[in-house]
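Weekly puzzle thread! Below is a chain. First person to post its structure in token form gets bragging rights.
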Amino acid sequence: MAPKAKAKASGSKRKVEERDTDTEEETQRVESQASGSSKSLKRAKTEYFQNGQPKNKVLPVKIEFTKRDEDALRIATWNVCGLAASLKKGFKFYIQGEDPDILVLTETKESDMNNVPVDPALKERYPHQYWSISDKKTYSGTAILSKVEPISVDYKLPGHPDPSSCKGRIITLEFENAYIIGTYVVNAGQELKTLSAKQVWNTHFDAYIRELDKKKPVIWVGDLNVAPTAIDLANAKKAWNKQPGYTASETSAFKNILSSPDEPDANKFVDVWRDRHPDLQHYSYWSYRFNCREKCIGWRLDMFVLSERIADKVKMCEIRDEIYGASDHCPVVMDIETSVLD
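Winning reply:
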């Protein structure tokens, strides 16, 4: 019998038996710049990174995780790098194994609501589905699928001078005792060509999350497109102020959300995974190119950021780093007391 995919991320080695992509019809092609060729992966030899993260390039054969406590709500976020493509590579196997109560998807790349993939099992599991789709076809895209019905839903970033640019990037669900904001944050772009657009986003998002936090605690989740510190990416020194996601502008904007330098008495926020794993250098994204997964060249871009006053309600927060192959990102999951939303 194939071993289970472990639920707990740690520095220890974990065996991950890969799903046979030929028999499952989920073949993933990974470009190898070194050889100039691409290969379809079958049951590759299991190896491990030095920091304890596995190297599997397709999904594990069997996906099971520790069940949530009865008084806990499980929230998962996953940049799927195109939902239609991810569905063909085993997306459903992770959802079946994790069974989150709320699922935040980013970079869905849907062109319009008429083309959103309809999976009857997914619809049955999540009766409340909210999609934010970009005006630009097959670009960005954010969705929140929930078993719990929210009080209200909003798709805007208030005050942003170009509302159309925010389509596909933000959804806010209001619940009785908290807000959930799902975001696919603007990327600073190759050669930082869209850094100015990200700075505009960061300015207005900072004001927005603080305004919501004055009313109710906030759970901010998704692909935040920033590596907050040097241990959140490989080759940090080489990337500093040169690569999108790791510039002074981006990291300081994120840091300022956690603790405002202008308002010392303002409520603070917590980067939950980092708070619970202060020394681990684990990632949630590896490019398909240049054998980045094998070389451990990754970034931690997908996160949960919570109002500090509810951070002690978190029961678990882990990077599901063995769930790789259906996207170039892996999911991040958090269990939190149900009372936070109820």
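Puzzle host: Confirmed. Bonus trivia for everyone else. The longest helix spans residues 195-213.
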